[in-house]
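wait is this the right file?? whatever heres the structure
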């Protein structure tokens, strides 16, 4: 399967930004991509840098005009498309939601982000209700996609649950970067930890991992910080954690990579981690902490 990753900076004008996204998707499809993955909350700048009730106006209904827009692109390009949207479920109830479209433009399924951060410049708990759809892979014509979102990528439990439910690939639309006050050493540690933990999910579950991050600097509207410089570095890892492709940390790129889903079968035969799990001894994982 050819997978296309769209790593881009985000424009403030919605229509111009969507036109940019559409063009990048078309470029990926023209290069043979069958599956195209976009970054987290790709339609707008990363509004969670501040807590502002007016930002709820950015949320969209699913289904609605926004999903119609991306469904049409998926159908025109004959691709499976993974998008990431700010969902308005009801007044006062919003989610960070990934929506997957089939090659015929139908909605294959959606996933609502489960792990919601609340850190300086990442005030997501103000905006997003934790997901309630569980860790359920989305069945597509290309296989079962284990779609998770950004902060989910730090949790081995989420990756494992998707794998146990039959996911053939883990996919993480992402928006993560550096705050300017961090030292260069600290910035390097953060980025490498982010890459390492996701490669670990690939190894532990014998599955390819696709991660797409945004890139470029986005200012803090409040002026209380110097904003976020998103570190890009979108990548695809194979089922042994091997890099199949990696983008730069500072440039917009469309990355096309071949992913062999059949390889996972062989890797799991060599390293049968699922076989050797001692499930009768894992009950403590459902506790917050073991005293």
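ok assuming it is, sequence goes like this
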């Amino acid at each position: 399967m050819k997978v296309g990753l769209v790593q881009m900076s985000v424009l403030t004008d919605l229509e111009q930004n969507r036109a940019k996204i559409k063009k990048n998707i078309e470029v990926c499809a023209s290069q043979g991509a069958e599956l195209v993955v976009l970054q987290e909350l790709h339609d707008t700048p990363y509004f969670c840098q501040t807590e502002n009730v007016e930002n709820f106006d950015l949320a969209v209904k699913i289904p609605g005009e926004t999903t119609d827009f991306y469904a049409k692109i998926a159908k025109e390009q004959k691709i499976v498309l993974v998008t990431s949207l700010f969902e308005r479920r009801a007044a006062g109830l919003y989610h960070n939601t990934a929506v997957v479209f089939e090659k015929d433009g139908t909605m294959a399924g959606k996933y609502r982000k489960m792990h919601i951060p609340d850190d300086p410049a990442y005030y997501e708990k103000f905006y997003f209700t934790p997901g309630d759809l569980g860790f359920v892979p989305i069945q597509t014509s290309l296989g079962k996609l284990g779609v998770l979102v950004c902060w989910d990528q730090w949790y081995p439990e989420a990756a494992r649950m998707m794998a146990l439910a039959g996911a053939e690939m883990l996919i993480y639309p992402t928006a993560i970067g550096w705050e300017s006050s961090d030292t260069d050493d600290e910035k390097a540690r953060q980025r490498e930890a982010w890459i390492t933990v996701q490669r670990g999910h690939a190894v532990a579950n014998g599955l390819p991992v696709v991660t797409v991050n945004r890139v470029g600097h986005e200012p803090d509207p409040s002026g209380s910080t110097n904003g976020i410089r998103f570190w890009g570095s979108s990548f695809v890892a194979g089922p042994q954690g091997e890099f199949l492709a990696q983008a730069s940390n500072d440039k917009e790129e469309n990355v096309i990579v071949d992913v062999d889903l059949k390889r996972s079968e062989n890797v799991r035969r060599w390293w049968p981690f699922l076989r050797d799990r001692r499930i009768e001894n894992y009950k403590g994982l459902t506790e917050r902490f073991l005293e």
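The two ends are 46 Å apart (CA to CA). so i think its the right one actually
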